[in-house]
Design brief:
Strands 1-2 form a two-stranded parallel ribbon. The relative contact order is 0.16. The protein is 58% helix and 10% strand. By secondary structure, the protein is mainly α.
């Protein structure tokens, strides 16, 4: 649990008192999971590679990378953004679970994606 949380959140969020709401949510969710199912999910992710098929994605895609994300690194997220037909990259200061640690910043990216993608459809 602690190792996963360290990969997902910044040290600042993990040290927050009272506990950061995003960290608390992730902790509760992880503790409620069946450990066998959780491990099966990670094994499936480890062997799932669809990079060769990214060009098949026709929808506009905004790929969000957190600068301090050791999991979905900037290099990996850039590969996805460049691989889809109509992709773009947004880099935020934050961790893997930026949507939980910095929800306002993530929500702003989602709102901008909706505006951007609507403009792409109209063109």
């Amino acid at each position: 649990l602690d190792e996963t949380l360290r990969r997902w959140f910044t040290a600042e969020a993990l040290a927050a008192r009272p506990e950061h709401p995003g960290v608390a949510h992730a902790r509760r969710t992880l503790l409620a999971l069946d450990p066998v199912c959780f491990a099966d999910g990670w094994r499936a992710i480890a062997t799932h590679d669809v990079r060769a098929r990214l060009r098949e994605i026709a929808a506009p895609a905004t790929c969000v990378a957190g600068r301090s994300d050791p999991v979905g690194t900037l290099e990996r997220v850039t590969e996805v953004a460049e691989g889809v037909r109509d992709g773009r990259l947004v880099v935020l200061d934050g961790p893997h679970m930026i949507l939980l640690e910095e929800p306002a910043a993530f929500a702003a990216v989602v709102r901008d994606h909706v505006r951007w993608s609507r403009g792409r459809e109209a063109a």
